[in-house]
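Problem: given the chain below (212 residues), write out its structure.
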Amino acid sequence: MLRVSHLSCSRGNKPLFADVNFHVQAGQALHLEGDNGVGKTSLLRMVCGLSPADAGEVCWQEQNIRHNPTAYRAALFYLGHDLSLKEDLTALENLLSDAAIAGRTLTQPRAMDALARMGLRGREHLPLRVMSQGQKRRTALARLLASQATLWILDEPFVALDVKAVDGLRALMANHLSQGGMVLFTSHQPVALTHGDGTQVDMSTYRLKGAA
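Solution.
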């Protein structure tokens, strides 16, 4: 379980948000909502352990993430606004190098399949610098298919995706949840997730409000 308790954040001398509390269990998704500028990205980065909080704690499996950051990073996949892709590498090379850096085994056929499932068949060997923003984002999202992480934290994952890619990502998230995974994500648009049998995914919403 991921548990966020009493998190507070300020930017400069200005409070951004305070006393944020929520949890996500296996098989659950949490949609983080909030107005622009309220601090959603800052909150996600704190949950990932990438930025310090003014107060509060983030716990993974009932242990503060600072106590065993290596184990937490192994269980986590984070996709932020910065897609962390190398422009001079191809889509395939980006997936393979990302897995190698993370210490995961990823075969070329599996990487090719992940890219194809994200609508990039025939573009696997193109360098990222010649791709559209939507194709770059699909390349980044293809890493989800190759990831063994339990917890997915996704910051506006549906941005720059066409309708077909949005449907594919929703199916990918639902399948991850059906296998006991967890998803924490932001989105400015309503998101409906259903399992393959048509049943609704266990999803809740947390609306982030600015500090008074």
